[in-house]
Design a protein that fits this description.
Layout (H helix, E strand, L loop, with lengths): L13 H20 L18 E7 L2 E6 L7 E7 L10 E6 L3 E5 L7 E9 L2 E2 L4 E5 L7 E2 L3 E5 L6 H8 L6 H8 L9 E5 L13 E2 L3 E4 L1 E3 L7 E3 H13 L3 E2 L2 H8 L9 E8 L2 H14 L3 E5 L13 H9 L2 E5 L15 H23 L5 E3 L7 H9 L4 E3 L18 E2 L6 H5 L5 E2 L5
Parallel strand pairs: 13-17, 13-22, 14-15, 16-17, 17-18, 18-19, 20-21
Antiparallel strand pairs: 1-2, 2-5, 3-4, 3-6, 6-7, 6-8, 9-10, 10-11, 12-23
Helix pairs in contact: 2-3, 4-6, 8-9
Length: about 450
């Protein structure tokens, strides 16, 4: 700041300059000694009872699997052969670290009842989850292209898919193949051992698979690029309640390559950039529902800002089911910029892609296979460079769903905006298209 001159300009004396310097140093010392502003505490998800995913019956045993409630929670299981069990009357098994309990040494044909609670900091969740199952020895018959199995009272599409297809998210394939809304106890089921309908081709239509993408999340503030936590939880619940199956990115790309079949109501969930709010808010909800998701990170972002993820947080999510993939190095627009020479442009593209891959390998020990173009921007050269870098597929933000014959390097994704209500959200979910086949 400059002051208007008050009379003739005079050079300050040595003594006055010394006094001024001493005052500035004292002010700096006081500022340094001032207590730092405490960081804003990250709100923790409320302690809730687990949601049971499935109960799988076996010979003299039952396996109970539920959705995780929090990264530091443990679990307690109460069981009894009496249907009206309480936490006081049942046998207690506490301190379970994983959201799974295998109960062995049971009597086949006897029904067992369970209550399940989550425990955090010594506090136990109220209103426990309840379930039951009947252990029994029933062997499925094996045929060249499918298993013939009898559904047990405790079976679900998820448990059958986990048992026979080694992926609970493929329960929708069993559901579609048998044309059922729910598993009917003691009903014979055909479980396909290999894809029965490649490419989602029907008699008069073909399957369209939506890929949803998010950016930031917030407890209270919603805008175009920021989704409120309550809205995201409502959207994930909508998928569950309306029979959608969230599938991993790998499975979806295999579908595009005619190597895998998807449930008819399949959907893919992704998020971009690497905002800390994904870890704080979206990640716990995804874990609660057991939904796989892919996070595309540009590698200059982590730890560059208080709102960015740390590499430790990314590493934790990667170890717990979140697929981490490339979103470039710096998030620059990958189209050629004004005044950029061709040689300089090609070198910049290689740096954006190769550096991201290298950092993922160094920081996380993973080999990335997919690229999300920043801003969705691409051209023929960008696609060629993505292929050269070894990416199997790449993603835009062009709105719409994807048939099996869509370009693997221009896969469409529908951005979910914070202003969406459930009707707007539903409009982004795919289905089947018969326009070309009419």
């Amino acid at each position: 700041m400059r002051l208007a001159a008050q009379g003739p300009s005079r050079r300050p004396s040595e003594s006055s300059r010394f006094v001024l310097l001493a005052a500035l140093l004292a002010a700096g010392a006081l500022a340094a000694c001032a207590p730092a502003k405490p960081p804003t505490p990250i709100p923790e998800e409320p302690l809730r009872a687990p949601i049971v995913r499935y109960v799988a019956a076996g010979d003299a045993q039952l396996e109970i699997v539920w959705r995780p409630t929090g990264p530091r929670d443990t679990y307690t299981v109460y069981w009894s052969t009496a249907p009206k069990l309480t936490q006081q009357t049942a046998t207690k098994v506490s301190g379970l670290a994983a959201p799974r309990y295998i109960h062995k040494g049971l009597t086949n044909g006897t029904q067992y009842y369970y209550l399940i609670t989550a425990v955090r900091n010594g506090q136990e969740s109220t209103d426990p989850a309840s379930t039951s199952g009947i252990p029994m020895k029933v062997a499925a018959r094996e045929f060249p292209k499918f298993y013939a199995a009898v559904a047990q009272p405790s079976d679900s599409f998820e448990s059958l898919a986990d048992q026979y297809l080694k992926d609970p998210q493929m329960g929708g394939i069993i559901q579609d193949f048998n044309d059922l809304d729910a598993v009917e106890p003691l009903r014979a089921l055909a479980i396909p051992r290999e894809p029965a309908i490649l490419g989602g081709l029907g008699v008069k239509s073909y399957q369209m698979v939506p890929v949803l993408t998010y950016h930031r999340f917030s407890l209270n503030t919603g805008n175009k690029m920021t989704v409120k936590v309550a809205s995201f939880a409502q959207q994930m619940r909508f998928l569950k309640d309306n029979g959608y199956w969230v599938v991993p990115l790998d499975t979806f790309v295999n579908f595009l390559d005619m190597k895998a079949q998807l449930p008819e109501k399949a959907v893919v969930i992704t998020a971009d950039d690497g905002w800390k709010s994904f870890y704080e808010y979206a990640y716990p909800i995804l874990k609660r529902y057991g939904y796989p998701a892919t996070l595309f990170v540009y590698t200059d972002f982590p730890e560059s800002d208080q709102l960015a993820l740390t590499w430790n947080q990314i590493r934790e999510m990667s170890a717990n089911g979140v697929d981490i993939q490339c979103h470039s190095k710096s998030h620059r627009n990958l189209r050629m910029q004004k005044g950029e020479a061709l040689q300089q442009y090609v070198a910049a593209l290689e740096t954006e892609m190769k550096t991201c891959q290298r950092m993922m390998k160094e920081k996380l020990g993973i080999t990335t296979k997919y690229l999300a173009y920043p801003y969705g921007a691409n051209n023929h050269l960008v696609v060629a460079m993505a292929r050269k870098a070894g990416f199997k597929a790449a993603f835009t933000v062009d709105r719409g769903s994807n048939p099996f014959f869509y370009n693997d390097y221009r896969i469409r994704r529908s951005m979910v905006y914070g202003e969406y209500d459930l009707k707007a959200f539903e409009r982004n979910l795919g289905g089947f298209d018969d326009k070309v086949l009419k």
